Amino acid sequence: MARTYFAQKRVLVTGGAGFLGSHLIDRLLDQGHEVLCVDNLFTGTKRNIEHLHAHPRFEFLRHDVCFPLFVEVDEIYNLACPASPVHYQHDPVQTTKTSVHGAINMLGLAKRLKCRIFQASTSEVYGDPAVHPQTEAYWGNVNPIGPRSCYDEGKRCAETLFFDYYRQHGLDIKVARIFNTYGPRMHPADGRVVSNFVMQALRGEPITIYGDGSQTRSFCFVSDLVEAFLRFMETPKDLPGPVNLGNPNEFTIRELAELVVELTGSDSEIDYRPLPQDDPLQRRPDISLAKERLDWTPKVQLREGLQQTIAYFKRHEFAEDPIAQQVQPIIAKPLLP
Ligand code: NAD
Ligand code: UDP
Ligand code: UDP
Question: How far is the CA of 6 from the centre of ligand 1 (A)?
Answer without folding.
Answer: 30
